[in-house]
Write a structure and sequence with these properties.
The protein is globular. The chain is built from two helices and six strands. By secondary structure, the chain is an alpha+beta fold.
Length: 101
């Protein structure tokens, strides 16, 4: 698995490798508003995970997930902040993301 110095480096490389969908958390699923892709936790796999800490505060943590749908060729990324900035998320989706954190 590659190693990246910055979040931007990770996102650029993942995009070049076909992870072109920008996913967001919508409580109990992942969604992409630009192309209406919706994936429930049982419909995707997390294939790579990269963690980045803030330069001034290590508690400012962001995680990049490389996501692949189990069916079809849909691949994309999810950027998630943890701690007080974390999104409202279902228990099932949180468990899936936490396993790979």
């Amino acid at each position: 698995m590659p190693s990246y110095d910055t979040l931007t480096d990770a996102l650029n490389d993942l995009k070049q490798r076909g992870f072109t969908i920008d996913f967001n958390i919508a409580f109990d699923k992942l969604v992409c508003t630009s192309n209406t892709t919706v994936l429930n936790p049982n419909e995707f796999e997390i294939v790579e995970v990269y963690r980045f800490e803030g330069n001034t505060n290590p508690a400012d943590e962001e995680v990049v997930y490389a996501i692949a749908a189990k069916e079809g060729d849909r691949k994309g990324t999810l950027i998630s902040a943890f701690g007080i900035y974390a999104a409202d998320i279902s228990t099932e989706l949180l468990k899936k993301l936490t396993i790979h954190h």
